[in-house]
Amino acid sequence: MEVQETRVQTDRVLTIPNILSMARLVGVPIFLWLILRPEFGGPKSDTWALLVLMLSGISDYLDGKLARRWNQISSLGRLLDPAADRLYILSTLVGLTWREILPIWLTAALLARELVLLVVVAVLRRHGYPPLQVNFLGKAATFNLMYAFPLLLLSDGSGWLASLAAIFGWAFAGWGTTLYWWAGVLYVVQVRRLLRADATAD
Prior knowledge:
Helix content is about 75%, strand content about 0%. The chain is mostly helical.
């Protein structure tokens, strides 16, 4: 598999795509607070949490699309976009696990994958390489998890809607977790080939 790098087209910081990514980052602690309010004696705010998560998903779609259309792909944007994705996944894992909606084993599986990627990124930096571009499987995994989490949050209730949300939420969670690890394995393979080619060239 070839390593694909997105060409940086601007060094500007205050672009519309970057502002959208920054807004997503600001939404992370708000989202986590809304999920955990009932655990600290506050009212249940799942509807507001779902709204924040939905807006995050929309902005995630828009920032990449606008960056490509308006030639505003930037180094900062390439850092902010995956950082926002991972922070939303982490905050959702913390919130849903705390409320016992997600089982510990699923949270551990997703966090273990993140730990593996952190080690791989550290290896890349040690050899003078930037983080590689997120591959299609990684985007697909994030897409599935971003659907799974609000559905599982919605399933924390009663009635037919909660039951239906649980069925689809667990389906998306299963696919998302599988693709998340698959994308991570491909990332590791890419890095190994890159470092091996570098060593051969030397």
